[in-house]
Known about the structure:
The chain is α/β, with parallel strands linked by helices.
Amino acid sequence: MITLEQISLQRGSKFLLEQASAVFHPGQKIALIGANGTGKSSLFQLLLGKLSADDGTASIPQHWRIAHMAQEVATSERNALDYIIDGDQQLRAIEADIQQAEQKENHNKLAELHEQLDTIDGYNAKVRAEQLMLGLGFKLSDIDKSANSFSGGWRIRLNLAQALMSPSDLLLLDEPTNHLDLDAELWLEQWLQRYQGSLLLISHDRDFIDSVCEGIVHIEHKRLNAYKGNYSAFERQRAERLAQQQANYEKQQVRKAEINDFVRRFRAKATKAKQAQSRLKELARMEDIAPAHIDSPFDFSFPEPGKFSDPLLNLSHANLGYGETTVVNAVNLSIHPGSRIGLLGANGAGKSTMIKSLASEIALLSGDFTEGENLQLGYFSQHQLEALDLDASPALHLQRLSPKAREQEIRNFLGGFNFHGDMAVEPIRYFSGGEKARLALAIVVWQKPNLLLLDEPTNHLDLEMCHALTVALQAFEGAVIVVSHDRHLLRNTVDQFLLVANGKADLFEGDLDDYSRWLIAQRKVDSKSTDKHSSSDGKVDKKVQRQQAAAIRKKLNPINNAIKKVETQIAKTDEQLSSVETSLGDNSLYEAENKDKLQQLLQEQATLTQQKDQQEEKWLTLNDELESLQQSLSIQE
């Protein structure tokens, strides 16, 4: 089992964990939760041996094999299938030994190695890797593509597949669903339910946690608090604990008041001095119980929309797509006040194309598009984060939209999104991805929309913010169309679904459980039709494919080159940062005579960290451009 005893983790001057303890038993599936910045990912780095505890001990059985989903993006020229199989290091080692034994014609050794290969199911490695790729949304035609040819989100999926390919006793997954659509998430959920080892999972998706995990470890007040059961059970248990904590706190405050009153009245009297001193000692020994902060740091709602039009938007006989490529055909859709629609369908089927068409980001290829006279659109997508002005504050973003708004009104509003004090008026350049996503949502809410178009709004948000958004959407009086892999959000905010599949967008009669069953049936159909997919005229198909590949490379190469350049910069910054952090590990630095050198290193660490954040933001922007372009061309492949 994994044992953490009195662990302290410090970043700069901030303690993430302080004298924290926890035990993880073999075979357990545990979700590690907590607000952004509380140390979840740092705890993973500790378990991986990439980070040392400032105090305390962490022990993992020496024989345990640990697999983890790398957050760094794949930068390999190897084809996707080989990149995934590389996750099985024992398999690759045996293959290398086989190659060496063949060169030496050592037949006895070859027999032994082939037996080892059979023992670890090595002969089926390619089949298992293909199953992982298909489950995570890749196509069979993707197998021979190099890892570098995929956009950022798909390369993260390759990392996930590689982690799942790796035989392990402990699997560490940090936000594995962030780059998945609902189809791939449901597949991953089933895979993890069958996983035999120990699982530690970081996720903001409560339904995913509910389906996979049997225990929760909550990082709160720099401690690791364990709860039995899934996320829903955690919510109930924590609510009960906080209610009891509040009652104990109130009882304690009464006792403190009594003690202080006694001391104030009798301290000066000789006959009572001893008793007063005793009361003071009791007060000093008493463990302070902090008031229970039951409320979330997020508290916002959508303002009541002004006038409505009916319908707000209307599509008639609309073909949607890019250039000459039609992605969704013959769409007829009327959006009325109060409509609450969730879009279902695989990645690349056309959900985002629909959202962008409704938002007028892309024009219809044909058909009629009608906006209501009083339409007030609120549109959120990951691209909205790129449109933020990095040198402007949250308050300035809103002030530009409403020049006549009072500063206090803006500050009060931003407080509901947990932008308090200086954070409301400082440039957002060094904000985290989650903080920028919160600001983008705040901007949408501020504009008082009567129609919301939301494309994966919960990416980068923590559980508390996801909950606050769900509550706000439940009370929203306007219309909502949402694309999300967050089933809790969908279940609680929409009342009908459109299925975008096979070039159509049709009403889906059923709920998310029905959709899960539909997916299973669809996968069976797809697997049967795979062989029939290849054209009888193979030479013509290959010629067309070569032409298409050339066209794609021509358009994608400049972006790919820019991405590689940024990745080189990130690697260099990582190397410099690693060197600084190694220097900071020298205990002599913390002696008085080295104070100036310590301050210099800490400043250098902060500068490099900010530089890396900027580079990663640029990398994400470029990858979004790449993914958008690939989506528009994927229909041709």
